Write a sequence for this structure.
């Protein structure tokens, strides 16, 4: 009981701090000026988050990252690119890192058919579950991928934009257009991991959400809801009159809550920290409700608990014409390239 109380207290404090700091960053709170000395130190240590330039490589390496801390939508984009590429019979490797796991990996490891979020993290397991790509969890350095390049036609790196040791052929940046770049300052004064001056090293900027006509953009919508324990689709009408909890551990939880409400489902909301590891007290809280609706990212961590009243939102990604045409051209170029191994 004492451990559960301590964990709940830490969680509550962390949630309050994350909400508070995000409010300051994105609503231009004056208190952010107090963090200027720390931002100056970050700038000196990281060279303002310099992004290495792209270069021509025998095997294309696409690095997908963001300029800000917090969720921007990298993982859905990675999943979509991996699907499009494997549909063209390209051999794809997704390189990722585990976050918020208890024990760090001792060596870089491929995720096999058995998904273990406690070992590999939620996002790597989600990518593995939703694509036909090979997924490699990096233990230390992304340089590990160099020995695998000859075995693949395309390598997708989830994050690593500011990794100076990582050679890349394209730099992709995902921007949540509802949040943008906040006050535009480097952390901790603002949400920026990279100064905007380094955006010149970015090859393609993709907006998540409603994008303007000339932009590269995509949108995520909820396609349907399914039961966590059976994977069977659920009739949404059945959920509308129940005591519902809408819960998620995402970098931008409000977007998830809005998508569920668009289905006509309303209930209490619970925003856990990004990459939250669910514990016994969380499951007890779930039992207070007739039904709990969670994201796919949370579902990979809850699957092993055998919860019969938990439902998952199945999302669908829609690329706008500009992004769809660009991705098609890039993948066609790889297909036609001499780098593909017969």
């Amino acid at each position: 009981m004492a451990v559960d109380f301590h964990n709940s207290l830490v969680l509550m404090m962390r949630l309050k701090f994350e909400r508070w700091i995000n409010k300051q960053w994105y609503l231009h709170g004056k208190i952010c000026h107090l963090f200027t000395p720390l931002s100056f130190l970050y700038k000196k240590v990281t060279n303002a988050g310099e992004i290495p330039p792209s270069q021509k490589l025998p095997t294309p390496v696409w690095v997908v990252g963001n300029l800000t801390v917090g969720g921007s939508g990298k993982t859905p984009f990675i999943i979509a690119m991996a699907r499009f590429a494997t549909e063209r019979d390209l051999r794809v490797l997704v390189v990722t890192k585990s976050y918020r796991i208890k024990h760090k990996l001792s060596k870089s490891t491929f995720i096999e058919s058995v998904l273990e979020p406690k070992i590999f993290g939620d996002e790597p397991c989600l990518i593995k579950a939703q694509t036909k790509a090979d997924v490699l969890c990096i233990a230390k350095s992304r340089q590990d991928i160099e020995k695998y390049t000859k075995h693949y036609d395309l390598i997708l790196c989830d994050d690593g934009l500011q990794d100076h040791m990582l050679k890349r052929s394209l730099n992709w940046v995902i921007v949540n257009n509802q949040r943008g770049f906040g006050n535009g300052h480097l952390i901790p004064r603002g949400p920026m991991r990279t100064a905007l001056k380094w955006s010149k090293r970015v090859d393609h900027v993709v907006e998540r959400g409603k994008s303007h006509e000339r932009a590269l953009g995509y949108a995520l919508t909820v396609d349907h809801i399914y039961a966590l324990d059976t994977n069977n689709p659920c009739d949404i009408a059945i959920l509308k009159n129940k005591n519902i909890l809408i819960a998620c551990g995402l970098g931008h939880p409000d977007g998830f809550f809005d998508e569920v409400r668009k289905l006509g489902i309303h209930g209490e909301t619970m925003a856990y920290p990004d990459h939250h590891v669910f514990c016994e007290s969380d499951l007890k809280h779930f039992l207070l409700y007739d039904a709990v609706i969670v994201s796919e990212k949370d579902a990979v961590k809850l699957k092993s608990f055998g919860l019969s009243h938990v439902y998952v939102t199945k999302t669908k990604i829609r690329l706008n014409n500009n992004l769809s045409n660009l991705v098609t051209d890039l993948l066609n170029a790889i297909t036609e390239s001499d780098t593909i191994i017969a």
Remarks:
- The chain has two domains: 61-215+320-336, 221-315.
- Residues 221-315 form one domain.
- The two ends are 59 Å apart (CA to CA).
- DSSP finds ten helices and twelve strands in the chain.
